[in-house]
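Cross-posting from the modeling subforum.

Setting up a comparison between two proteins and wanted a second pair of eyes on the formatting. Protein 1 (sequence, then structure tokens):
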Amino acid sequence: MRRLAFGLVCVALAVFLLFPFYYAVVTSLKSGSAIFRVDYWPTQADLTSYVRIWREQPFARNILNSVVVAAAVVALSLALGVTAAFALARVRFAGRRTLLYTILAVSMFPQVAVLSGLFEVIRVLGLYNNLAGLVLSYMIFTLPFTVWVLTAFMRDLPVEIEEAAIMDGASPWVLVTRIFLPLMGPAMAATGLLAFIAAWNEFLFALTFTLSNDQRTVPVAIALITGASEYELPWGNIMAASVIVTAPLIILVLVFQRRLVAGLTAGAVKG
């Protein structure tokens, strides 16, 4: 009975989480007034909405912008996170715990609280309506999480490995790149994937710091989709664009799910 109850709960949870995406797929395959009819099973396979989002706006450029920004954010977050994790987990210095909690405190502020100050920073640096400005702003919420997860993972690695490398004359940089980095695959995959998803789905900073359609990322592009005329509702285009944008994330999670779970549970058990 316990296994049956657990299985039913898992099925109910899966249906609850996957139904919105499933219904978006069903709706994206409709056209005209059929979009407003409630159907739980696909009744037609009209790809008009998928064709129109590529023709009526630079959706390919928006996807490319999101890929470039998300990939840059992941690369910078992991590079800075690994070096910071080594210092916080392996180097003893005064104020280490205070610094770690300060890094965590940065991620507690809501985006809207830092929006005005960050806008001034972006404007002074000349990065307004520039993808580099989005990369810089996204680091605010991806880097603290990356540092925390990697620090917890690196803290649990055997100290004997580090001592043996030091006895062989390894420098701190060699320790990070040749010793610890190959052992941190699960944590790197987990933090990198979550940072990619956060950067891919971010909306507020992308809406504020970009002006032209050529510099916008996909969340903003989807929010600004309009019909061909003022009397035409764009729900079919919006559903089709949402499916296209969400599908790669689902594939990435399914591919890296084992490493994702291993990385998120890093540091949970001692001994």
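Protein 2 (same layout):
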Amino acid sequence: MSETTERLDSLGTVGWIGLGVMGKPMALNLLNAGCKLVVYSRSPGPVEELEAAGATSQSSPAAVAAEADVIVTMLPDSPDVRAVVAGEEGVLSGAREGALIVDMSTISPAVACELAEQAAGQGVGMLDAPVSGGDVGAQQGALSIMVGGAKLDFDRAAPLFEVLGKTVVHVGESGSGQVVKACNQIVVALTIEAVSEALVLGSKAGVAPETIIKVLSGGLASNKVMEMRGRNFLEHDFTPGFRVELHSKDLGIALEAGKEYGVALPVTALVEQMMHALELKGLGEQDHSSLLTLLEDWAQHRIGVSE
């Protein structure tokens, strides 16, 4: 038994709820590392795939929690997490005292705090541990994980985080992980918008987009967006790694946090509206790098196409 497997074994049985673009590869990484996993998802296909890889499944979040010592949730939004954790047949209706919930979704900091308090009232620990790195980071086990909650709970969940991510930081008390994730989503969204502007300007002026990315990647303008989404921009391949509608939701969370803490976020508000414009065009399920197409429409120019 490897050291990683031994550390995972110390967690007991891990429950996993949510097997989407991010959740499924993350759960598979845990299975491949030797984790004992019980899963639940509303979609049968991913559940069957996880079962074929060695997981067991259950019929509800409560049933997962009844079997598990640590329960991970990876869901789209605050209402989903609230329903799965605290709703009828939710995790808290099945969790044993001493269990630990690790929510790796991106949700409102206020909801994260509310659910952590409710869990504590039942003798259950809870961490908010949102991630950054997209589908590629999830597949490669190279996510950045920002964790809010009690330090003892963070230390307990460490073997799990070590498999799923490369940068794992305990950032503070409950809700802090979601605050840092909001900060992350601001930077990513504004960088996508900036790269899109640069590509459209350069291309319409006659410079090849791949040349622009190559040059910018070698200087101060270098960024992870060009590294991980450069091909998407150049090939206009907007197969979702992280959907526009989810990033739009995340920017909404950031703007609400700005109001709560008295911080003006003017450019975040602008890019949130640009994401919303894509949703109104029916493009909410495309990858967030498709923000490029909005700039192209405004400039009446598709990058890489000679005028």
